[in-house]
Amino acid sequence: EVAMADTWTPKKYKTYSWIVKDPELLGGKLAIRGTRLSVALILECMSNGMDIAEINAAFGGAFPHEALPEVLKVASELADIAA
Predict the structure, then answer these.
(1) Can you give the residue ranges of every domain in the chain?
(2) Which CATH number describes the domain made up of 4-79?
(3) What are phi and psi of 10, to 5 degrees?
(4) Closest of 2, 72, 83 to residue 30, by C-alpha
(5) What is the pLDDT along the chain (83 residues), one digit of tens a residue?
């Protein structure tokens, strides 16, 4: 018997490699692939002055550093949307 975690893959967000958006993960919030960390959480940590090492330490090494450029790009896209 194969566990759901072995077969389920969250849906990619647009063409991003690291960013996913799936209703089965964090209620559909933008998240970092392979983690339960939301894009908003990482941005909040950064806005509070945390660096990558501090973010990684705070979440038990779960934040993949390679995801940071995509986190920032998504933030830029969303900030550019007219309210």
Answers:
(1) 4-79
(2) 1.10.10.10
(3) -65, 155
(4) 72
(5) 445 556 778 999 999 999 999 999 999 999 999 999 999 999 999 999 999 999 999 999 999 999 999 999 999 999 888 66
**Residue 1 has what pLDDT?**
44
**Any idea which residue has 């490699």 for tokens?**
17
Q: What residues are paired with 12 via a beta bridge? A: 20
Alpha helices in the chain (DSSP H): 4-7, 39-47, 52-58, 68-79
Q: Which residues contact 37 (CB under 8 A, 6 or more apart)?
A: 31, 59, 62, 63
Q: How far apart (Å, rounded) are the C-alpha atoms in residues 51 and 3?
A: 35
State the amino acid at position 20 in one-letter form: V
